[in-house]
Design brief:
Helix content is 32%, strand content 16%. It contains 14 helices and 16 strands.
Length: 430
């Protein structure tokens, strides 16, 4: 009997996976629906069609514009009335809205769900522990969220031939708290930063953080460099050059809205196969001046021969958690961390400290609370061995105090990049 969780584990492992049982499982359903008609859904559809699987329809909120994908009709989500014998293959890769959409599936009575991103890892991804990865193919295919790829992480980790190796799934390097936009539902809470805190992290501190952290770790799957808006940091090229001097990681994704003018000198040294500039696509909510800058930046990067991707326009977005303390007990915080998708894959380095996630970073950086158990002081660690032990224990600890502030995503809202302001330091009436 086919067990989905076993397939997921094999897909994540980095080993070769036999997909025969997977295909038989998919064919056992009367109806097969692919939710998500962009890059991932397109690739999964082509793979299944090549395996003689009948796909009855795609679901996508943009159905009126898309009409068909792979010659299969695209309809509005939840339009299939036959729920009991329908398999929904979920192919929406965006990490921010994924949880809310999966919850919607359950609430609408669709119990048979197969994760399309995991299907891609196990059945379509051309890389395994014996081949290693091709960073550019991983990042430029747009079929998978490479920065959140368990398979990639395990392939990188397999290179380390060492007992008790210290590996981290991914880490985010925060270079500033400045942004060129004012997104109402920013998951980094940039709008909450007062003027005096909208700063660049000093270059000397970033250098120290990179040296200490990567000297401590045996391997890291992926690195995201972001702000705020990372290209607002005047020493951006020097930061990336420093990062590329390290070899114990898989790839680097530079997350940008593309709405601040990129200078040609900021691209120096970025023509490296491990680098990809990831442009978020907020055009539907941008002013004309920002749209112009966005397109100019893409053209500049393209003409510079640097690897880049432009995100899919997101017609939906998640509302992040409020930041104030919920006053819950330790058992509740332990339960929250246990089922949270964030740590250890969303840990962040910012200004001499390692935080568990962007939520924890905001709680500390905005001065809402200072919980010593919720960060590692990289700057003041006594030695590499000391830092190594602290990070190992930090990853393993049963909860973070900021878990007592987090209530998870507060639902979906229309359009990514909507401009405006909400005070997330207070209860929200949404």
């Amino acid at each position: 009997m086919f067990k989905i969780d076993n397939f997921y584990s094999e897909a994540h492992s980095g080993d070769l996976v036999n997909d025969h049982d997977l295909i038989d499982f998919i064919k056992s359903f009367r109806r097969v629906v692919i939710w998500g008609a962009s890059y991932l859904g397109n690739a999964v559809g082509k793979y299944l069609l090549a395996q003689n699987v009948t796909i009855d329809e795609y679901w996508d909120i943009r159905a009126a514009d898309l009409i068909t994908v792979n010659k299969i009709s695209v309809n509005i989500p939840f339009s299939t009335e036959e729920k009991e014998d329908t398999l929904v293959i979920f192919c929406i890769g965006n990490n921010v809205i994924r949880g809310g959409l999966l919850k919607n599936l359950t609430e609408n009575g669709y119990k048979n769900v197969l994760r399309g991103d995991y299907l891609y890892m196990g059945a379509i991804c051309p890389f395994d522990k014996s081949t290693g990865i091709d960073p550019r193919q991983c990042q430029m295919s747009m079929c998978c969220r490479s920065i959140f790829c368990q398979r990639l992480s395990n392939i990188i980790q397999a290179k380390v031939n060492k007992q008790s190796a210290l590996h981290m799934f991914s880490v985010t390097l925060i270079v500033n708290s400045r942004c060129s936009l004012s997104c109402k539902y920013c998951t980094s809470y940039m709008n909450a930063y007062p003027k005096e805190k909208r700063k660049n992290v000093p270059l000397s501190q970033i250098y120290e953080d990179i040296d200490k952290f990567f000297s401590t770790m045996d391997s890291v799957g992926t690195i995201t460099v972001m702000g705020g808006e990372p290209f607002m940091h005047p020493d951006f090229a020097k930061i990336i050059t420093k990062l590329l001097s390290k070899e114990n990681f898989g790839l680097v994704s530079i997350a940008t809205s593309g709405t601040f003018p990129i200078k040609i000198e900021q691209l120096k040294g970025l023509k490296d196969e491990r680098i990809n500039i990831s442009f978020s696509n907020y055009e539907q909510n941008l002013k004309d001046i920002h749209k112009k800058i966005f397109r100019q930046n893409i053209a500049l990067v393209k003409n510079s021969g640097i690897s880049y991707t432009v995100g899919v326009v997101m017609p939906e977005w998640s509302i992040p958690s409020t930041l104030f303390d919920q006053g819950v007990d330790i058992e509740t915080m332990i339960e929250k961390k246990k089922y949270c998708i964030q740590p250890p894959r969303c840990m962040q380095i910012k200004n001499g400290k390692l935080h568990p996630c962007d939520f924890g970073t905001a709680i500390y950086s905005l001065g809402i609370a200072d919980y010593e158990m919720d960060y590692i002081d990289i700057k003041n660690s006594q030695s590499i061995e000391d830092l190594r032990n602290k990070i190992r224990n930090f990853i393993a600890q049963p909860y973070y105090r900021t878990c007592g502030h987090c209530v998870g995503m507060l639902g979906l809202t229309a359009k990514a990049g909507e401009q405006g302001f909400l005070d997330f330091t207070k209860p929200l009436n949404i």
